[in-house]
């Protein structure tokens, strides 16, 4: 049995990957909340941004965590098309969940389906990402832990969506993001605990790209995208929008026309 290390780089990979998961979640939830306050094309573009943010945040988290993944006795390479597919699947499946939440008639239904979609997106991304791993050995999965990791992903995504849609205020948003980040991370390490590797002796050449040559640059690009979009979204609500949303939140008979 090949001995696996999940933190060969020390604590930096899990901490950094958790931060990325939180940033992606924070941005995605913020965009989802903005989407629900908007109409038409504006709502659609907020939802698309939310999907891209959560999807790439999850993906970046997964692969930064994978930088700390080592198996004794074999090199590890990544299949490039499958790795890119896992990113696409994350964004598309999360997108389906986010759009259901954004257009759902009832809150319960949108949280249930949105959470299911997002959670399954996280899980699908994780296992396609794992399928992209090339090493000299046979990989096996513990079905119970795999199932548990999917349940964690779905429950967590639903909880985060519920928090984003139900609780107002910056503190609540921060807590929801931290929870979702923690959930994505625990789903990741549960999924990794499900993996067993039987290393084969022999040094067959492995196809694919090494983590540092391919994963790291892509993670940096996605990370920069997330942080830049984050800054843009954080700075985007204008005073007028704020006044309008406050007016919309008050009962109709109390609305005064804004002066000036």
Q: Give, in order, the helices and strands.
A: EHHEEHHEEHHEHH
Q: Give the strand content.
A: 5-15%
Which strand order does the major sheet show? 1-2
Mean pLDDT figure: 77
N-to-C terminal Cα separation, in Å? 73 Å
Low-pLDDT parts are none
**How would a crystallographer describe the biggest sheet?**
2 strands, antiparallel
Task: Please report the total strand number as a whole number.
Answer: 6
| Helical percentage | over 70%
Write up what this structure looks like.
72% of the residues lie in helices and 8% in strands. The radius of gyration is 20 Å and the shape is elongated. It has one domain. The strands form 3 sheets. A two-stranded antiparallel ribbon has the order 1-2. It has a two-stranded antiparallel ribbon with strand order 3-4. A two-stranded antiparallel sheet has the order 5-6. It has 260 residues and is mostly helical.
Keywords:
8% strand, two-stranded antiparallel ribbon, 8 helices, elongated, mainly alpha, 260 residues
Summed up, what is this model?
By secondary structure, the protein is mostly helical. Helices cover 72% and strands 8% of the residues. It has one domain.
List the helices and strands and how they pair.
Layout: E1 4-5, H1 12-37, H2 40-66, E2 70-71, E3 76-78, H3 80-103, H4 107-131, E4 133-135, E5 137-141, H5 143-166, H6 170-193, E6 195-199, H7 211-235, H8 239-249
Antiparallel strand pairs: 1-2, 3-4, 5-6
Helix pairs in contact: 1-2, 1-5, 1-6, 1-7, 2-3, 2-4, 2-6, 2-7, 3-4, 4-5, 4-6, 5-6
